[in-house]
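User: Is it possible to get a 3D structure for a protein together with its bound compound? The compound here is iron/sulfur cluster. I've pasted both below.
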Amino acid sequence: MRSLDKLRGKSKPEVEKIAPPDGDSLSESLVEAIDCHLGRRNSVELKRVDGFHPSYTNQCARYWVYLLRGVESKTDFAPQTYRIFDNGHAVHDRIYSYLSDMGILLKEEIPVENDDPPISGTADGVIEFYGEKLIELKSISDAGFAYRKTYNKPKDDHIRQAQIYMHCLNLNSGFVIYENKNNQEILPIYMERNDEYIDKLFKKYRKIYAAFLDERLPLRPYKSKESKQCLYCNARDFCWGDQDGGERI
Ligand code: SF4
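Assistant: Yes, that's possible. Here is the predicted structure of the complex:
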């Protein structure tokens, strides 16, 4: 039987049939979509601090002066790095919940301030365990965990953070608690407050802060833009493009 359209001399336009994407392409598209979403966190912005932040790993004097002045800083992390950071935050929440359920978590996310030298940060928490003790929570790779376990010593950056927090919160001891990212094994490393360490560190911070107040810029302590410390510095482009070579402080 002839269709009505044919009888009217019209024929239906052909609808192009697009094959639905297969499972593999759908999976790839989803990864791309998530990566793209996380990539939006990268930015170039003016970063300025009012004091030394214990959690910052870059201890270059020139970097601190730039931060105190305010500097254009570039955040350029891979999406997977953001997932690693977020996983670290989730580890914090889980360990807080254990300590809280045990009834020994006294405080969490404690603001920490100091006037001279100016310091501003957030300590992970304080627990009651044979007296009040600081806790700093860190998730770490399997290899890093094995190393910490062998030497029973926290990373230098974590020692600095914990010492500053213990000093500012007037605590005598604490734990850096590592959790292995691969198997959730935990390793609390006990630390006592070390006033000599703090004196030395604060002397260095006061010197850097005085340079900032006097509008003096410290020399670049590294030989090239490619040096390891500079590669991870988010003021790298600004610093190496700065005509001011700086001075010894
Ligand atoms: S780029 Fe290197 S020398 Fe410059 S502020 Fe950063 S770490 Fe210091």
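Residues 79-101 form the longest helix (23 residues). The beta strands are 43-47, 71-75, 105-114, 119-128, 132-140, 173-180, 186-192.
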